[in-house]
Amino acid sequence: MASIVSVSNLSKTYASGFEALKGVNLEIEEGEILALLGPNGAGKTTLISIICGIVNPSGGEVTVNGHDVVRDFRQTRAMIGLVPQELTTDAFETVWNTVSFSRGLHGRKPDPAHIEKVLKDLSLWNKKDNMLRELSGGMKRRVLIAKALSHEPRVLFLDEPTAGVDVSLRKSMWEVVERLRASGVTIILTTHYIEEAEEIADRIAVINGGEILLVEEKNALMTKLGRKQLRVDLAQPLERIPESLSSYNLTLEDNGQSLIYEYDTSAERTGITALLATLAETGVRLRDLSTRQSSLEDIFVEIVEAGR
Amino acid sequence: MNIEAVKSIYFFEMARTRRTLLQSVVSPVISTSLYFIVFGAAIGERIQQIDGVSYGAFITPGLMMLTLLTQCIGNGSFGIYFPKFTGTIYEVLSSPISMLEIVLGYVGAAATKGLMIGTIILITASLFVDLSIAHPFVMIFFFVLTAVTFSLFGFIIGIWAKDFEQLNLIPMLVVPPLVFLGGSFYSVDMLPPFWRAVSHFNPVLYLISGFRWSFFEISDVNPLASAVIILAFLAVCMSVLTWIFRTGYRLRN
């Protein structure tokens, strides 16, 4: 697929001397959902801010649909919607006015029908005449999303959109995201809820210390780095691993109540059948079996730790 | 040119004025009336005329300037500072608008509000004293140019200010002395020679003097000098703003 956002060799050093980005390269494909993961202070927000035009880059370049974000800012910013991390709203404005204001700022003529649709999609329609200060945190978050969608962007940046949002609302927000993706909008999101990225993203980029450590298809990443664990709960505890099982990479846990077997899902043979057969031969009686796949979170921690 | 965006910012700012209509409109009417009662009636009784103009009429242009400067600086600075303070500035910065368009929206609204209030004061004043405007076009020239220039000046303060203390520093500490000592309520000819000389270094004296000339054809300094001073200050503000846009000073850094 063609890339819609292209970041090349982007760097940013703040006036304080802090180097937030160190030569970042990133291609974002049209129509995909890209999750940008990274610990606090990794450079996620700086990267988004430069693409959106809020912060000037120190070096390198960014293009959106072939237009340079500094030189052709009118074209690029008209295509982009941004939902910031902080809940920043004009306390005394009404929902309707603030969303209409956003549309105007992006140079679009008023379109009450579109604003109505956006508000209804985000279950904000019955709050349209309320002042923003009267809204709960979750509703303010949705207002920010409505503002970002007011001008029908092709690329949407969601900077930690579900921070402080309750479970049901989070679900309905992801439904909105799914619908947007279905309509062809490219979505870039940063999140701390890694399971969210796991659930919703097509590709994952990991950033730390101002550098992109990895960009990969989510599924490929999960398979490549995904290790699986087989947990064998024993009927009677073992003091140590029997001699006959020494060829397997086993560890004993829970005071000898469980055997843990680590294996690679992408390997030709996982070795599970052989292990179970050997267990039976050795006379070890099993109480229960369970497997666990390493989550994106484990993978993420692994990558960031390795990068240190 | 992103006209929609300029309109959006302008009307957004004007809506803020509408929400605070009472303090925006009623308060200048009350304070002007108070000035007329105190200066016009109480003190004016003893001064009566300056250069053939009744004291009440004489102070009207000064009062208009006093309010115009305070309002324009206040609105110009608050309009851009507040989004910076709350963080909503992100939206303006990530919109397809040039800095010129941002200025047109914010400064246009601040100047409009200043002009509205100035006009209200003029109308209020005309209820107390007989007013005639000798040179209406010159009056409008000074009126509009001052409003625009000081709204720009306010805008610069709003970008520069890092907190409310700094935001209020110039409007509260610098402007009132300049306006009061700039001959709002007296002719500098009434001062001792030393202070008269010092007054000529006060740029606001030129504004008030030129503005007053357009009403009564009396002035402390040559009206042409007044026009030059205000145009020069406008040029300074525009140069500073150009520098701000080019460097992204305190906005995009």
Task: Characterise this structure.
The complex is a heterodimer of chains A (308) and B (253). With 308 residues, chain A is of the alpha/beta class. Chain A folds into two domains: 3-222, Rossmann fold (3-Layer(aba) Sandwich), CATH 3.40.50.300; 226-294, YebC, transcriptional regulation domain (Alpha-Beta Plaits), CATH 3.30.70.980. Chain A is built from ten helices and 14 strands. Chain A has helices spanning 44-52, 73-79, 95-105, 112-121, 137-149, 167-182, 194-200, 218-225, 272-282, 296-307, and strands at residues 3-13, 19-29, 33-37, 59-64, 67-68, 80-83, 155-159, 186-190, 203-208, 211-217, 227-234, 250-253, 258-264, 286-293. In chain A, the strands form three sheets. Chain A has a six-stranded mixed β-sheet with strand order 6-7-8-3-9-10, sandwiched between helices. In chain A, strands 2-1-4-5 form a four-stranded antiparallel β-sheet, with helices on one face. The longest helix of chain A has 16 residues, at 167-182. Chain A is elongated, with a radius of gyration of 24 Å. The two termini of chain A are 33 Å apart. The relative contact order of chain A is 0.14. With 253 residues, chain B is an all-alpha fold. Chain B has one domain (3-247). Helix content of chain B is 79%, strand content 2%. Chain B contains ten helices and two strands. In chain B, a hairpin with a 2-residue loop joins strand 1 (49-50) and strand 2. Chain B is globular, with a radius of gyration of 19 Å. Chain B starts with a helix and ends in a 6-residue tail after the last helix. The mean pLDDT of chain B is 87. Chain A binds chain B through residues 14-15, 52-56, 73-78, 80, 82, 84, 86, 88-93, 97, 101-109, 147, and chain B through 2-5, 7-9, 12, 15-16, 19, 83, 86-88, 90-98, 248, 252-253.
